Queue: 2 jobs
Job 1
Amino acid sequence: MSRAAIFAKIESATSSIKEKAAYPDYDLSIVHSLPKLKGEDLWDIFVHNFSYVNGKAMTSIEQLSAFLLETKQLHGYCDPALYDTIGSKLAAAGLTVETEYHRDRYDEYQFGVTRATGAIAESGSVIIDDDRTSHRLAALSPWVHVAVLERSEILRTIPDAIAVFGDSPNIIWCTGPSKTADVEGILIEGVHGPGEQIALLV
Amino acid sequence: MIGIQPIDQYARDISDEKQASVIDGSSKGTDKRYTVLHKDYPDPDKIRKLAASIKDHTLHHLEHYLEKAEKSLIARGVNVHFASTDEDARQTILSILRSHGVTQLTKSKSMAAEEIHLNPFLIENGVECLESDLGEFIIQLDGDEPSHIVKPIIHLNRRDIAKTFLREGITDTYNDDPETITRQARVYLREKYMQAQAGITGANFVCSDTGRLALITNEGNSRFGMAPVPVHIALVGIEKVIPQEKDLAVFLNLLGRSATGQQLTVYTEFINGPRSANQPDGPEHMHVVFMDNGRTDVLASNCKEILRCIRCGACQNVCPVYRQASGHAYRSTYGGPVGAVLSPILFGSRFPELADLPKASSLCGACNEVCPVDIPIPDLLLRLRDKAKRESVPSAGAIPMSPFAHLATTPSFWRTAITMSKAMNHLPIQVAPIKPLQDWLGQRTLPEWHGGDFRKWMKNREKAKS
């Protein structure tokens, strides 16, 4: 009912438009922000822009475990596929690492280690793709989210990241930690999502 | 009241404290937007014009792109619904919720849902419905209305919020530190997310080629609202469709920068279906409700350019009238310049009542200058003023102009009146017990009257020449 009525009204409105606008022919380089793309190495560009949005870029597991110990984020989740390479080393450093996320204990996980499925250098964003992420909540509810990233997965620009969307029904770009400025315009991090967003290069 | 339109009355009655919050919040937004756009792009105007032309093309071919979006979504296992009116939209959402047995849900900020007053309706019908955006959550606790598209509580300060949290039992001790307030909301809302059986969102864009909805937040509330629940419902205005995913790059780069001075907001989500098979969390069912609610009337009007709007709030931040009067003065979901155009036509039956809004502008053009989709707002305001004139909509609070018109078109009367009115300098009109005059003078100081001086000077000059 509504559908037919809406389409009829749209058609009646658009049919009276004398000059219909054509789809513009444009090159996506128009939206590249050149000052944000300075440099050659994609990881370096990513780190620069990711730091600008208060993300923390790390290149070793030692660096990560030291940070977690120092900030007293001692109990967390690790994607089972990353346990051998990362989770076990965090456990060896004295942290408690689970490879299963129990939603009834959502409040106990202080950090979550999951795969990033890419990154955008231009904006300093980590890409999380539902198809290849072990657990949505484990990447979201802990205070610290560690997105594990491979060098080859870093994309240069926002249009490049859109071009590789593929088939996944749910893709999220995380550009820094969760934040708000609702109260008097004052920036506060860690509203609903992670208060610390880490990108770990492996 | 003669001489005072409703919007002027709001501007007069607003408390100093609230006005300070609005002025401060909106001017901060303006500065950040300007700096970021101009730092990143040599000529941001080119991108604005490009975005405008993509939107115009889509709107001019809306039946094609809307149908394409519908097909793409259905192909991905999404249930697509259409709602002609606000009532249709509310009933559609309620019946979806009932079909899934949902009694509790969280909702991330959506102007479309605000527009149809979805929350109170669902609550009346026995569904616990909680706003999860921090600002909207506070608005809901207060039973208030958002006063800015992006910063819904721009009119509140930390003390107001701390009092609300104490009153509503979110905390048992008063603390107005913004970080503490945020943490309290974090703890309270997480429990609600985990208990909920559905998440309701809006959508910023819908790509017709793949059906992907783009959803933008900073807090991560929409992401959290959808992670633990089996049902996702998105309420989307039909004008949110864009031709293809490629175009997202243009709009996303403009939206964050124009709204908050960010290149991208923290969470940019792209969704076109229920969760992946290998994913333990997330909705098994996804519904998209495309809503008209007056949009086709706007499309048929001579103000259709307003449908380009991507809800960034830049025009509100920069508008001198908005800053003085606050968003509530516009008396509908959309305040500021965009609201002054959109509200009177979107809510067609409310036109006479909202006809003062298009007049509440000095036509300074700042709104057009900052608009990421280059909407000629001042032109549209003039078209609406014209509409009010043509439809003889009585102007609330306006002084009848016909005696003045008679005076101004009869030179002999005019000359006499001008000279005579010098007497005004000696009359105590500031204290005259005439209410409309008092209202008018309450906002203005009259300069000393020099009526007739110029004519006299001209006359003497002619004489001296001859």
Job 2
Amino acid sequence: MAASFLFSQFVGGLTTAMFLFLIASGLSLVFGVMRVVNFAHGTFYMLGAYLAWQAVQWLSPTGENFWPAALLAALGIAVLGAVVERLLLRHLYGREELYQLLFTYALVLILGDAAKFIWGTGQLSVTRPPVLAASLHLFGAEVPLYNLFIMILGPLIALGGWLVLNRSGAGRLVRAASYDREMLDALGANVGTIYTGMFVVSAFLAGLSGALVTPIESVVPGMDVEIIVQAFIVVVIGGLGSFWGTFWGSVIYGQVLSFGILIFPGFSLFSVFALMAVILIIRPWGLFGRPIR
Amino acid sequence: MLDVRKLSKAFAGFVAVDAVSLAVETRQTTAVIGPNGAGKSTFFNLITGHLRPDSGQVLLDGRDITGTPPHRICRLGIGRSFQRTNIFTRLSVLENVQAALLAHRGRGHDFWSRSERFYRDEAEELLGSIGLAHQADSTAGTLAYGNQKQLELGIALASDPQVLLLDEPTAGMSATETREAMKLLERIAGERGLTLIFTEHDMEVVFSIAEKIAVLHQGRVLAKGTPAEVRADAEVRRVYLGERP
Amino acid sequence: MNRVALGRSIPWTLVVFLIAVWVPALGSRYDTFLGTQIAIDALFVVSLNLLLGTTGLVSFGHAAYFGIGAYACGILMKTYGVPFVIAFPAAALIAAFFALIFGFFCVRLSALYFAMLTLAFAQIVWAICFKWNAVTGGDEGLPNIPYPKLDWISSLPGLGDLSIADEFYLLTILMVALSFAILRQVIRSPFGRMLTTIRDNPERAAFIGLNVRAYELAAFVVAGGFAGLAGALYGIFNRGAFADYVFWSKSAEVLIMTILGGINYFWGPPVGAFALVWLNQEITSYTQYWPFVLGVVLLVLLFGFPGGIVGGLVAGYERLRRMLRPRHA
């Protein structure tokens, strides 16, 4: 097998992985701190993509204003997250987990249809920003600069996130909250603000990844469900609520998906499911997660 | 009856229970006392299988039961009440006791009978003996706090234990309620020939009914013996009873 | 506070069955169609509620066992020509068998982790159904599952000439009624009582001598088996088994039906199934935005009526009774 083929599979897997990491880290963060599994996280991602497309149309359809459009979209989703948390989700914290789960599922249904209503069911696409339109030739494989950018951005955000969580006061509170909620109360921290903050950061990350994916993939209804299932597999592999688990879970997912094609041609997703099944059986709480019973 | 040998348990480096030994004889009433964080609840959890000890042994009638899961321990004749009230809130009072009887008699696998037909009389009699007969049809979660504690005792008794571990049986009760509850406990222990082990904050209660006292301090046994011996122990007086020499 | 004794002594399953029997005779073909759908969904939600309302376990992947039942029955009848009387119970056994395997891993975890794991396994089942062309037909599904031989129904005295759809409807409500009778009995049995103690307080349940995980697993297997029965009926009713049956949205839909009706009552979930199927038919003739409507219904339910329809009705009835009854001193 040609080295160039293997390398391009590797690069493809890594790009997928870094996108997934951006998305799954938000999902994992909200779970770790708030013990809420946010099914609507994929919907935030999809809306981020639609908003980015919309913003590009407003600013300039030729693509030179892609970056401000992407930022605008991510901020828009962050605001949406704040509204959802403050107005609705907040009232369900005291209730059983089932109700929070179904609440986020209701958002999937409502927002998904709203997007269909506004933007229709056709495919929308955004051209690559001119700065990154070129490609690089590495080991005989063609690597678009944009993919390279994503591969660098992913680890940077991972590192930044890790620094915030481990070196800042806010990060300490967040980690304390993910260990023990009572401890947080004891610290006298304002739990409500922390929860809103986490939800907003997580929505921002989802919106940003949605915006950033538009130059590589077209925007269509149903991309929300597709991505949430994948992000979900990532956090299950890595361990719900574990930061590095999410990172390595994404990397493993991306590579298994890329090279799984060699084992199950036509259905590489199967190799990912097989991997997930094995991990669930050996370590039901994920590779980096903590066992909780 | 119950023989605990050098039981130890550490959490993430913090030693909660440190080589605690305690031998309890049949029908003896033993109090385990000590300040908050002395390791009393952990000690109970180690005996009842909720936690697995790092080292040491628990012997029941000479049989090693160390590390046996809680549901088996319960079947072996150790009953327990919890510090937080632990009842089945959405079942009726009668159903609470009936359920415990069904579980204890190994009837839980029965798919084909009507559960309410089993052990009605026995359950009612048990409720009578703990003074809850008039509340039999109430939903357990709606009972007053003191009554919930009584019901918890009822659930524990339904398993027909030889040894009963009570974690702060009078926590949150008024002085009158406490006296009532202890009187009930003494009577039932006498009638059924129970071996009682309990933790308690109220020293008056402890010294009035315990035949033996073990004082825990920072996970270790500071002193043990009869109430008189413990009362006389200089170390206990200094650290725990708060007296200066 | 005394618990509601409302209608305790009425054999509701029999009553509803005796009413439902008249649908083909008195209603339209469309009513029979709707009735079959409701009956099947009712069985599906009641099986889920054995976990949710009785044992306190949130399964987000119950559609897996429904789908397995549909495929199992369909493959046996279509591919191997096995008669319905064998394929139908076999579907339940196969679904229960998968529930046993998956459940073994799921009950090791609690609460949210349990929900996530059930969902993960369901997605694995979905992926297999979607891609295993040789056996499940892949994304094409498994069309043309044959109807069972039902001529005998028309030859029963007093029934006259019935269409095949009517016959299948009668078969469905009979199977569903029998399943209800069994599940009702299971919930009322000592075994069911043990499940309710686990729902209320797993820690205490262990200390009345219960092996909590074993009981949870048993409940999971029973629930999976009956979901498989519902799926088997649905595959025949819908003339095929498709990967959609297993998808997470199907699992969410049964959860919504279940709490819409009210998880604290045996008849709550079937009422929820009735309401949602009916609403779906009404809405989809006006608009394509059914998910939107379902989402709004769900929000109203979560924030306004957490006890569901039956929970709300019983609470209303209680209030009315208290208002009407003269106060005793």
